[in-house]
Amino acid sequence: MPELPDVPEIEFRSDVTVELVKASARDEDVVFAARVSTKGEQSLSDVASEAERSAGLIRYLMRDRHGSPFEHNSLTFFVQAPIFVFREFQRHRIASYNEESGRYRQLRPVFYVPARERALQQIGKAGHYTFEPGTDEQHELVTSEMRRVYTEAYASYQRMLDAGVAREVARAVLPVATYSSMYVTLNARSLMNFLSLRTHRADAAFPSHPQREIEMCAEQMEAFWRPLMPLTAAAFDAAGRVAP
């Protein structure tokens, strides 16, 4: 086997990055949108003064699944995570995504390795299974094999780039555990739909069992959103975390 060429220092991560880039999202936006149905044109400033008295309206809208008033807002997140997490994100066709391109820039050697607390064993049949902690031996095997394969894959990628092969061709050897970055823009209704499916909560009316890595993203997104729309977030919880 030929010697591996010098490559940029490889980084192994077990976390994800989520940042709130910008947001126009308040409980008043929900009230404003809802009351135009019954009051016609109304100024947002008038509604803002009524917002604290409107928790009941928001709970009603959530409970009876009148969803469109929850769409008149916007949140944009910056996310860094493994590519396989982004593929799960993009199953949700209720957001706008812009991801960095391996065609136009050299991808960085940053790869995902599960933390020790990440469950490794799938117990049971498809659709009726649980994930259980792995043994020390399993964790050591996962860590060593992933690091070895990532290092070899990135060396192959670098050799092809050094030989003048186009980035869009050379990237084919890189694993889906390579970290990428993207912007995600969505409204509160879409976010609640995402959270209902990508967080595991015992108080949910329909408990979901997401892959842990995308749940890590969802938890951080929810943490940014809840202080912006506390009445809506509380109504979402009270409704069993079912999106309207």
TrEMBL record:
Q: Indicate the segments annotated as coiled coil, or none if absent.
A: none
Entry keyword annotation includes Protein biosynthesis: no
Q: Name one Pfam family in it.
A: Thy1
By its UniProt entry, which SUPFAM superfamilies does this protein fall under? Thymidylate synthase-complementing protein Thy1 (SSF69796)
Cross-referenced InterPro entries, in alphabetical order? Thymidylate_synthase_ThyX, Thymidylate_synthase_ThyX_sf
GO MF annotation list: flavin adenine dinucleotide binding; NADPH binding; thymidylate synthase (FAD) activity; thymidylate synthase activity
Q: Which residues form the active site?
A: 198 (involved in ionization of n3 of dump, leading to its activation)
Q: What's in the keyword line of the UniProt record? A: FAD, Flavoprotein, Methyltransferase, NADP, Nucleotide biosynthesis, Transferase
Keyword Metal-binding among UniProt keywords: no
Report the pathway entry. Pyrimidine metabolism; dTTP biosynthesis
Under CDD domains, the record lists: ThyX
- This enzyme's EC code(s): 2.1.1.148
Catalysed conversion reaction: dUMP + (6R)-5,10-methylene-5,6,7,8-tetrahydrofolate + NADPH + H(+) = dTMP + (6S)-5,6,7,8-tetrahydrofolate + NADP(+)
Q: Which GO terms describe its biological process?
A: dTMP biosynthetic process; dTTP biosynthetic process; methylation
Q: How is the cofactor bound?
A: Binds 4 FAD per tetramer. Each FAD binding site is formed by three monomers.
Which residues are involved in binding dUMP? Answer: 88-91, 99-103, 171, 198
- The residues the record assigns to binding FAD are 68, 91-93, 99, 187-189, 193
Gene3D superfamilies linked to this entry: 3.30.1360.170
Task: State its cofactor.
Answer: FAD
Name the job this protein performs: Catalyzes the reductive methylation of 2'-deoxyuridine-5'-monophosphate (dUMP) to 2'-deoxythymidine-5'-monophosphate (dTMP) while utilizing 5,10-methylenetetrahydrofolate (mTHF) as the methyl donor, and NADPH and FADH(2) as the reductant.
What family does the database annotate? Belongs to the thymidylate synthase ThyX family.
Query: Tell me, how does this one assemble?
Result: Homotetramer.
Protein name, per record? Flavin-dependent thymidylate synthase
Give the species.
Quadrisphaera granulorum
Please state the gene responsible for encoding this protein. thyX
